[in-house]
Specification:
Na+/H+ antiporter like fold, about 75% helix, transmembrane helix, transmembrane, membrane, Mem_transp_PIN-like, 2 domains, mainly alpha, Auxin efflux carrier
Length: about 425
């Protein structure tokens, strides 16, 4: 038993070190001027808008089937529960103790995508996953288990990302205006954003001209304007309450949600699942080219986003060091509260809750990998999206620097998740 604990601890420590080193490579890239703040923003936007949806589509689509659907229902319920609980704790603590506004989203939103996905990948490399599969598990079984664990984490991340998009800006004061006015302005901006310039109308190319044929570009703009115009007409006939509901729901819609929805449809429709994920000789006419290309796109997300984390931290800390007196003071109480919630309270609660459900009920089935990933879901450092939220809300420089300092400290302490991994592995192994 002692040797198993040592093996689990060393494997977890190596996995955490792997994640920390990948972040450090991003810091080095920023320090060497290979990447700057603008590049990090563009890469982050690429990841959220294109790479993560591709990863969700292929991973969820390949793992989700009618026979496995019941495994994902507890994940969605658990993700909703811990996100709502974190949000409530953050709001109450911030108001009760007059803490800075950024404390609420720091407690509410943890890194649910790049960091845990890379952690699972590292655990597969160290062999720690075999403790949940049995001693006879070969490389193929480990690879399949890592893919399955990633699909569990990705389903959970849908809720986390939706909450971040939906509530994050409001918690930092970005949505002080009526949501209906904000949404209507978005529609009107969309209907006018693709108006042709004089150069476009005359067919004169410039540095902003599309590489697509003029006819294709004009058709795209015409379709886009027509879509937004139709949406405005529908919007204008909706009653006030329906407009409010639509505007608030729209905040939760994002490219990752779309990618997950497409993946779920492909996975749950047998005919689509077959043509996308079966071998070519078994009817998988899209697997070798379309599915493979989308999968390659999605695989770029994990490592790239972790490197972007390092770049953002390096750029942010460089800004604080040049900020003169505007240094972004970190209240000790705020730091201890957030770190305590992320690295102590939630690990204890999640391990206790999931262990109780496994021991007392059959709600979580018989997959130890599902239990393990559910224990990890609420844990770990705060989401890097805090920096983007601070930019979107036009927060003061003092607050931006405080957020950057806190995130730097939080990710530097990310190996603190090692005991959580070790205890989660031990708990799952006990109930196998």
């Amino acid at each position: 038993m002692a040797s198993d604990m040592v093996v689990a601890f060393l494997a977890a420590l190596q996995a955490s070190a792997s994640v920390l080193l990948t972040i450090w490579y991003g810091v080095l890239a920023a320090q060497a001027r290979f990447l700057d703040s603008n590049a990090a923003k563009q890469l982050s936007r690429l990841g959220v808008s294109m790479l993560l949806p591709a990863l969700l589509m292929t991973n969820i689509g390949s793992q989700l089937e009618p026979s496995t659907l019941t495994r994902y229902v507890p994940i969605l319920i658990w993700a909703l529960a811990y996100n709502l609980a974190s949000l409530a704790v953050g709001i109450v603590c911030t108001r009760a103790f007059a803490l800075p506004k950024w404390v609420t989203p720091a407690i509410a939103f943890n890194n649910t995508t790049s960091l845990p996905l890379l952690l699972i990948q590292a655990l597969g490399s160290t062999g720690a996953i075999t403790q949940l599969l049995g001693p006879d598990a070969g490389p193929d079984a480990i690879s399949a288990a890592v893919d399955r664990a990633r699909s569990y984490l990705l389903v959970s991340s849908i809720i986390g990302n939706s909450f971040t998009f939906g509530f994050g800006g409001e918690l930092l004061g970005a949505h002080d205006e009526d949501p209906r006015d904000e949404f209507e302005q978005t529609l009107r901006d969309g209907s006018s954003s693709d108006e042709e310039t004089d150069a476009d109308a005359e067919g004169i190319p410039d540095e902003e001209s599309s590489l697509l044929p003029v006819a294709v570009t004009r058709c795209r703009k015409r379709v886009s304007r027509s879509g937004y115009s139709a949406a405005i007409k529908v919007w204008n006939v909706l009653p006030g309450w329906a407009q409010t509901v639509t505007a608030r729901v729209a905040r939760f819609v994002s490219p990752p949600v779309f990618g997950a929805a497409v993946g779920a449809v492909i996975g749950l429709v047998p005919a689509l699942n077959r043509v996308f994920f079966n071998d070519p000789e078994d009817g998988g006419i899209f697997k070798a080219w379309l599915t493979s290309s989308v999968k390659n796109l999605g695989e770029m997300f994990v490592t790239l986003q972790v490197i972007v984390v390092g770049v953002k931290l390096a750029v942010g800390m460089r800004g604080t060091s040049r900020g003169g007196e505007t240094t972004g003071r970190l209240p000790a109480a705020s730091v201890l509260l957030v770190l305590g919630m992320r690295f102590v309270v939630w690990p204890v609660v999640s391990i206790a809750v999931i262990s109780t459900l496994v021991a007392k009920t059959d709600l979580l089935g018989d997959d130890p990998l599902l239990w393990f990933t559910m224990m990890l879901m609420p844990t770990g450092p705060s989401a890097m999206k805090l920096t983007a939220l601070a930019e979107a809300t036009h927060a003061e420089d003092e607050e931006k620097m405080a957020i950057t300092k806190f995130l730097s400290l939080s990710y530097a302490l990310s190996p603190l998740i090692t005991p959580t991994i070790m205890l989660s592995l031990k708990a799952c192994k006990n109930w196998m």
